[in-house]
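Narrative of accomplishments. A recurring question from our advisory board has been how the design workflow behaves on a single, concrete structure rather than in aggregate. To address it, we present the structure tokens for one chain from the evaluation set, followed by the sequence designed for it. No filtering or post-editing was applied between the two.
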């Protein structure tokens, strides 16, 4: 990627990843585990993740023009570099397949019930082709253009029922019990998987000293967006210590929330407006993931033919989408595979490589000074 990012562009791109996950109903998995204690759980997670991000920020000061792939090579040579690249490519493909499958189900079941899913999926094929041929600069421009509208759309989720906010639906504040909220609830950290971008960010930004600002503002904004979406869901679909959100509704919860929003007497069915803007969010999300695959291929395998890659990505995504032929399979893939994969990759594999790389780099610097 030759286009260097400003603070605003970087925060916009990172935040769109979270907005896309909100649209795809990932907050439902948070509430399914921790119930009304999800807000407390997110605050608890933010406390630890903030320290995690501080460590990342400090370490990357010593790797000004390098990302996690470069550091992988430092730690384990070409073998580890290739292995990590392949793991990341699998993760990105999985994220693309989930995004296309999930949103295809949403749009088809809402507006195109009598059409084959391939009709809706063709929209994403077009998006993939455009993203590949137009380049990252176009994705960046679209992401920054719609960023403000998309952020506002998430905050508007709390405006349902004529803005009558009911705080009673947010209690008990600590949810089912303390053990679930502050123990088992640690697995809700999957929702912060946008942190993976931080491991690639340093070579992509225009000014290296802006790295801490990007991490701070993107982490804070994404936390707020996730929390607002959780509060909006709980406001309209309250849970008790004996009932989880999965018992309340089997449909897309976020879309159901938009149907409760009434801006005025003549504009009561606003879900179509939300779907319109959120389609841009999903398309931007998919474009970002695709360019992530391009970046890794170019970085590790020195393969720059995006046309051939484009026509390789489409059948893989199509095949994955066909395999996930119902909502039950999709939810299983998201909840038990993708979310756990996100945790292991973000807070385990990549962080461990970064730590080892830090000490190895530090040791190498000391040896150079000793020789002098």
């Amino acid at each position: 990627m030759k286009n260097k990012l400003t603070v605003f562009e970087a925060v916009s791109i990172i935040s769109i990843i979270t907005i896309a996950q909100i649209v795809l109903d990932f907050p439902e998995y948070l509430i399914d585990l921790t119930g009304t204690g999800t807000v407390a759980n997110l605050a608890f997670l933010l406390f630890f993740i903030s320290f995690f991000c501080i460590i990342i920020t400090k370490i990357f000061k010593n790797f000004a023009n390098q990302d996690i792939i470069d550091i992988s090579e430092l730690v384990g040579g070409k073998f580890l570099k290739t292995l990590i690249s392949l793991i990341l490519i699998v993760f990105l493909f999985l994220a693309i397949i989930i995004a296309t499958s999930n949103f295809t189900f949403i749009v088809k079941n809402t507006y195109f019930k009598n059409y084959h899913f391939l009709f809706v999926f063709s929209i994403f094929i077009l998006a993939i082709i455009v993203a590949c041929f137009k380049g990252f600069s176009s994705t960046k421009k679209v992401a920054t253009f719609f960023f403000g509208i998309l952020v506002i759309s998430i905050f508007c989720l709390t405006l349902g029922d004529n803005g009558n906010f009911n705080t009673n639906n947010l209690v008990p504040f600590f949810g089912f019990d303390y053990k679930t909220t502050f123990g088992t609830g640690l697995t809700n950290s999957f929702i912060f998987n946008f942190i993976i971008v931080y491991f690639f960010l340093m070579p992509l930004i225009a000014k290296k000293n802006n790295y801490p600002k990007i991490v701070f503002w993107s982490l804070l904004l994404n936390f707020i967006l996730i929390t607002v979406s959780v509060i909006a869901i709980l406001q309209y679909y309250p849970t008790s210590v004996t009932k989880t959100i999965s018992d309340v509704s089997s449909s897309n919860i976020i879309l159901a929330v938009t149907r409760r929003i009434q801006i005025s007497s003549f504009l009561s069915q606003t879900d179509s407006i939300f779907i319109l803007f959120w389609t841009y969010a999903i398309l931007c999300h998919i474009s970002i993931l695709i360019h992530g695959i391009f970046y890794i291929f170019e970085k590790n395998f020195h393969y720059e033919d995006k046309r051939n890659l484009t026509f390789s990505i489409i059948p893989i995504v199509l095949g994955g989408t066909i395999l996930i032929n119902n909502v039950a399979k999709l939810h299983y893939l998201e909840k038990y595979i993708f979310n756990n994969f996100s945790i292991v990759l973000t807070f385990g594999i990549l962080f461990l490589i970064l730590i080892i790389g830090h000490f190895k780099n530090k040791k190498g610097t000391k040896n150079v000074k000793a020789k002098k």
